[in-house]
Design brief:
Elements: H1 2-10, H2 16-25, H3 32-42, E1 78-87, E2 92-100, E3 106-112, H4 118-128, E4 136-139, H5 143-146, H6 148-156, E5 160-163, H7 173-190, H8 195-211, H9 223-229
Parallel strand pairs: 1-4, 4-5
Antiparallel strand pairs: 1-2, 2-3
Length: 248
């Protein structure tokens, strides 16, 4: 599973057939059915043109995709979230994070041993504890984010909800870049023995990522500096995102 995760980061268009070939070249014989089951267990889906890439729950209401990255011009304009797989020496965990797209600041994160809605809700509550909230909250159509509890919490704060739809796989690319950085500069170098070690080490890495590490895309400043110094979106004239489309 750890090798599948690394190979997926290099080639997210790989399905079970190509993944079997990659693993065979590394001396790991495995059947396609086994790879397919592991990909499903890890929550990974190949990116390619097909009717649906994410299997949602059964939401009573659907939401448009409101995000155009070219029009994100202020902090708290758009927060985005996603879930990734974290390998351990024995077993694995899931990591969810909420990121401000303008500053790249990681507002909150949470580890879990299951793909349920509860740990995503806890991450959302942690992000809102600071007293700030976004104009738009963006996610894919995973069942954790389309659940009635998650949607109701956002609506209670009067936050606009945005879901990635068909042919919109790059709307969450900034969070995917965060995952790539976390995996290659932290997770794969340490091989955590258990969840406690993973939580301590990830906390240290993500704190440095936000508070110490300069980002060239931010003019050499850190995400935390940009997030705390730039005027929030709520105090600026509202910007309407273009390119919105119906989620299918």
């Amino acid at each position: 599973m750890a090798r599948i995760d690394a190979l997926y980061l290099e080639d997210p268009c790989s399905g079970s057939r190509r993944m079997v070939v990659y693993l065979a070249r590394e001396g790991i014989p495995i059947s396609r059915d086994r790879v397919r089951n592991l990909l499903r267990r890890m929550g990974l889906r190949a990116i390619y043109q097909k009717p649906r890439t994410t299997v949602p729950g059964d939401p009573s209401e659907r939401f448009l995709c409101l995000v155009d990255l070219r029009l994100v011009m202020a902090v708290d304009q758009v927060w985005a979230t996603d879930i990734t797989y974290i390998p351990l020496q024995k077993g694995f965990l899931y990591l969810v994070a909420i990121v401000d797209l303008f500053s790249r600041n990681v507002l909150s994160w949470k580890l879990s041993n299951s793909l349920d809605t509860e740990f995503c809700l806890k991450a959302l509550e942690m992000a809102l504890e600071g007293g700030r909230k976004p104009e738009i909250f963006h996610s894919d159509q995973g069942c954790q984010f389309t659940s009635s509890d998650f949607v109701a919490r956002l609506q209670s704060e009067k936050i606009k909800i945005s879901w990635s739809g068909r042919k919109r796989c790059y709307d969450n690319i900034l969070v995917e870049r965060l995952w790539r950085t976390v995996k290659y500069e932290e997770v794969y170098l340490r091989a955590y023995s258990d969840g406690w070690e993973a939580e301590i080490s990830l906390a240290r890495f993500l704190w440095r990522y936000c508070h110490v590490r300069p980002h060239s895309s931010l003019g050499g400043r850190t995400p935390h500096e940009v997030y705390t110094e730039i005027e929030p979106c709520s105090s600026r004239p509202e910007v309407t995102m273009s390119g919105a489309r119906t989620v299918q």
